[in-house]
Specification:
This protein is of the alpha+beta class. It folds into two domains: about 10-75 and about 185-250 and about 350-400, FAD/NAD(P)-binding domain; about 125-180 and about 250-345, 2-Layer Sandwich (D-Amino Acid Oxidase, Chain A, domain 2), CATH 3.30.9. Helix content is about 30%, strand content about 25%. It has nine helices and 20 strands. Strands 1-18-14-17-16-15-6-8-7 form a nine-stranded mixed beta sheet. Strands 2, 3, 10, 11, 12, 13, 19 and 20 form an eight-stranded mixed beta sheet that branches. α1 (about 40-50) packs parallel to α6. The radius of gyration is 21 Å and the shape is globular. It starts with 9 loop residues before the first strand and ends in a 22-residue tail after the last helix. About 55% of the residues are buried. Bound molecules: flavin-adenine dinucleotide. Flavin-adenine dinucleotide binds near residues 40, 41, 73, 367 and 373. Flavin-adenine dinucleotide binds near residues 38, 61, 68, 209 and 238.
């Protein structure tokens, strides 16, 4: 099983600080309980969770930690997923859809709690979420979405256009106002979790390019490109958008996404600190950071070719800035960062977490969908339960080989 697929995951200039290489890599041990391949936000959260429980964990990466897709993230930690609850309910039934959304909601709460308990300095800040009517959910459908969320016990309320526009000082549009979300600096979160994992005994080894996995007595042997190898009782694949397609069904697909950011200080009094996004295709979202940058993103393209993707950055920057000006009713914002990145999606907007079908003792932890940071928190809980052999009632909800039901045409 060859894992050496390498993608150029991002281009342009994002607004996060690049991961400093302050972590001296550890020496590769000969064996351990769990090897986690991938030191992005998923690998970081899984490693911290397992190490804190006493597992002997080795985190391997071909790059320095948090320099993959995680560094491109706009890092809003939300529970509202790409596919609306009402659409998911039509595809798989109301009860199942609610179960999944409730579990994602509790993953946001758990991550919140973990950040606080570990006292991570990662730019945490609560953000209300405004979800505006668009061509995916018109105002009537948005009312139904609000009712579905409320009946699932999720904190959302419908707001009429005039009230919303006046309160948040944006172009009036019907919307949903939800609570429970927060923002982080994705690089700081990842590095903080890795630091906590290391304090609990985990090893971080890089650069190690994993090429191949081989079944070994009572475990798996992980072979690296430089000839090194390590044996583990369990392997967790947290390789982000690389190599994932070797394991995941075709329904999980890759695309390219774009984002722009202003200089700090452009949003001194930002819309009650809300994340604003449209239920549109292509979607648009905007938020401010703690240092007053305005981040706007969306405009996804259905391909992954990095040269083609990056060549579109200037054009996408202009489109995103124009859309933001309309939404925010401001045309004075100077954007000085623009970037593009590979992005993964799934038909139900939910991640792929569970056992690999093709190899025993290998677990998949892939946060496909716009809530990848939330899904990393979810992934760490599910992987922990699977490795411990404990029952998690929702394992089937995020199983990589689940059925997606009859999805709406978007
Ligand atoms: C533009 C953009 C905006 C986003 N906004 C949000 C948002 O607002 N909120 C949110 O929750 N999510 C968001 N996401 C999604 C989220 O950022 C991603 O889901 C998440 O960062 C993926 O993390 P990861 O750890 O799975 O992958 P990565 O960060 O890519 O980490 C995977 C690691 O695996 C390593 N690796 C791969 N193959 C090998 C190998 N063979 N050997 C060794 N190492 C290997 C790579 O080097 C890499 O470091 C956004 C994504 C993008 C692109």
């Amino acid at each position: 099983m060859n894992l050496a697929e390498r993608l150029d995951l991002r281009g342009g200039r994002n607004c996060w600080r690049e991961a400093p290489s302050q972590y001296e890599p550890d020496q590769l041990p000969q064996s351990c309980d769990v090897v986690i391949i991938g030191a992005g936000v998923m690998g970081a959260l899984v490693s911290q969770r397992l190490a804190a429980e006493g597992f002997d964990v080795t985190l391997l990466d071909r790059r320095a930690s948090s320099t993959g897709a995680t560094a491109a993230s706009t890092a809003l930690v939300m529970w509202g997923a790409d596919v609306p609850l009402t659409h998911l309910a039509r595809a798989i039934g109301v009860e199942e859809a609610m179960r999944r959304w409730r579990r994602v909601f509790s993953a946001v709460e758990l991550l919140n709690h973990r950040i606080a308990t570990l006292t991570l300095d990662c730019g945490w800040r609560a953000r209300p979420e405004l979800y505006l009517a668009g061509d995916v959910l018109d105002p009537d459908s948005l009312k139904q979405e609000a009712a579905a969320r409320v009946s699932a016990g999720l904190p959302s309320e419908f707001m009429e256009a005039a009230t919303l526009g006046e309160r948040f000082d944006i172009a009036p549009r019907d919307g949903l106002l939800s609570s429970g979300s927060f923002e982080v600096d994705p690089v700081a979160l990842t590095l903080g979790m890795i630091k906590a994992a290391r304090s609990a005994g985990a090893k971080l080894c890089y650069p190690y390019e994993v090429e191949r996995l081989e079944l070994a007595p009572e475990g798996v042997r992980v072979h690296c490109e430089n000839g090194a190898d390590i044996r583990a009782k369990h392997v967790v694949l947290a390789t982000g958008y690389e190599a994932a397609r070797l394991f995941l069904p075709e329904a999980f697909s890759l695309s390219s996404s774009y984002a722009i950011a202003s200089k700090p200080g452009e949003a001194p009094a930002w819309c009650e600190n809300a994340l604003i996004w449209e239920s549109s295709d292509p979607y648009l979202y905007a938020r401010a950071t703690t240092d007053g940058r305005i981040i706007v993103g969306g405009e996804d393209e259905d391909f992954v070719d990095a040269m083609k993707r990056d060549a579109l950055i200037p054009e996408k920057q202009a489109v995103l800035a124009a859309k933001a000006a309309l939404m925010l009713q401001r045309d004075d914002i100077q954007f000085d960062c623009a970037w593009a990145a590979t992005f993964g999606g799934s038909p139900d907007g939910l991640p792929a977490i569970g056992r690999a079908q093709t190899m025993a003792r290998v677990l998949l932890a892939y946060g496909y969908g716009g809530n990848g940071v939330t899904f990393a928190a979810l992934g760490s809980e599910m992987v922990r339960a699977l490795i411990r052999g404990e029952d998690d009632p929702d394992v089937s909800c995020f199983d990589p080989y689940r059925a997606f039901g009859q999805q709406d045409e978007r």
